[in-house]
Amino acid sequence: MSRDQFQNHLTAHCNREPSVDQDQFETQQYELLSAYLDGEVTPTERRQVEQWMADDPQFKALYFQWLQVRAQWRSMPIPQPTIAPQQLADQIFEQFQRRTRRNLIWGGAAIATVLMAAISGWIPGGTQWGFRQQLSQSSEIEPLRIALHEPVVPIVNPNAVSISVDQPLIQIPKTPHSGTLPK
User: Fold this and answer.
1) Does residue 145 lie within any of the structural domains?
2) Which residues contact 33 (CB under 8 A, 6 or more apart)?
3) Which end of the chain offers a freer environment for a tag, N or C, measured as fewer CB atoms within 10 Å?
4) Taking the model in full, what pTM does it have?
């Protein structure tokens, strides 16, 4: 029996108080039937559900249909895990530890980078070390010189340089050679 059929049945056959909304009443019946199947009703509620089943064959059919669904649900095979629970837990904790370690390493690297930047003066307001200190201490700034007609540094003529192969520039003393290496 579908929910719509059940609702039509309740509308046609059930006596109820006029102050209770129909949807609320139907919901109450479904909840009581479910609790009845689970054994979670009071004696008064149990008698009410049993009275509905005795008075209404469609409500009784719904009860038996729910019993069948419940039996089929309980007889469904439970899938076996492909991995042991302890092994799964170990893998989860190992992955968590790896992430924690990686975050600590990246955090430490970021802190070290900020400290190095502050020390070297790259961050405004940082200490006056490094390039900033050198620039502020040098009072003499050499102007840029451009040589238009004459070079600033004398250029050596490569043809004027000569090295003799037979005569070394420095005298190398000769030692007596006996033919064996000293020990």
Assistant:
1) no
2) 49, 59, 62, 63, 66
3) C
4) 0.35
